[in-house]
Every structure is written in C-alpha cells, then in structure tokens.
Amino acid sequence: MTKMSLGVRGIQFLAASAAIAGALLIPAGAAQAQATVIRFTDGPNTEHFQAPLEGCLPTDLVGNVTLTETTTGQAVDTGKVFSVHGVTTYNYHADFPNGMYVQSGLNRDIFTFVANPPLTVNTVATQDFRTIYAADGTPVGTLSIHETIHITFRDTNGNGEPDPGEIKVQFDHFRLRCG
Fold this sequence. Notes:
The protein has one domain (about 5-179). Helices cover about 15% and strands about 60% of the residues. The chain is built from one helix and eight strands; from the N terminus they run αββββββββ. Strands 1, 2, 3, 4, 5, 6, 7 and 8 form an eight-stranded antiparallel beta sheet that branches. The chain is elongated and about 60 Å long. It starts with a helix and ends with a strand. The relative contact order is 0.17. Mean pLDDT is about 85; it is low at about 1-15, about 15-20 and about 25-30.
C-alpha cells in the first residue's frame, strides 16, 4: 500500500471517527426541526516522499513522488442520523533514477459514512490509474488500482468502535494490474 493510500484513508477514517463521536453525543430521541448540512473542502495538499511503484517495476527502483490531494464532501446531521460523503481526487507523479517516470490520470477515493446509532456503515472505493513512461517520454506501461473497503457494524456497547461480535459485514477487495 502506498503512502498515498494511507494518507487518504487516514483522513477519511479520522473524519469517520469524528462522525461516530458526534453521532454518539446526540441524545436518543433528540429531534431537530431540520437537518444541518456542512459542505467541506480540504486542499489541495501536496506531499513529497520516496516509494517504489507497487508491483509494476522492480522493488529496488525507488522514485521521488509528488502527491497532491483535494477532498470535497458534505456532512448531514438530522439529529438522529449523521452521514458524510465525498471524494478525494489526487494527482500522483514519480520520477525514478533511471529517468523513467509515472504520471497519474483521474484518481479518486469515493467515501461514504452513515451513523444511525447503533448501526454504522462506512465504505471507501478507490480508482487509481497511472501511466509508466520511459526516460524519453514514451509510454511503456500502465498501473491501475481498484479497491473497496467496507464495514457495517452494530455498536451494541456504545463505544463508537467495531468490536468483535458487532461487525456484520467487513471486506477489503484490492486489485492491482500492470499492463
């Protein structure tokens, strides 16, 4: 998993954790006259780090990566249900010591989180497309990553975390293709 994946997911899961905490602080039976809607944007944020290209180039070939991410979305609080949905778009560029480089296409993480205590549902779907170029700029390959992470749990003890026995559905489907 790249640093990019961990950074994006870290932000999304932190937002989801905050959403759980917010939903749990709402007293049962409390009602609001109307929903509170909060639109949000974070970024663009740029990171620089070193990493190999997962699965498509030799693992000893490490490149200098520039990653720029922007997250937009919306949170809705009805007083009973708290939901967050949005998208993180990102641009990935890596330069390797042999002159090869990698440039991303349209990359995004689509996320949704719904807390209707005690039920919580969280899903993140990743679409990541990259082209690998030779030192002369000729395309020599592609990389695509598709991943879906999902969890549904019933928080019977009210601690805001999925504990053993509370998880109803959980999966992580990951597919990486080199071409």
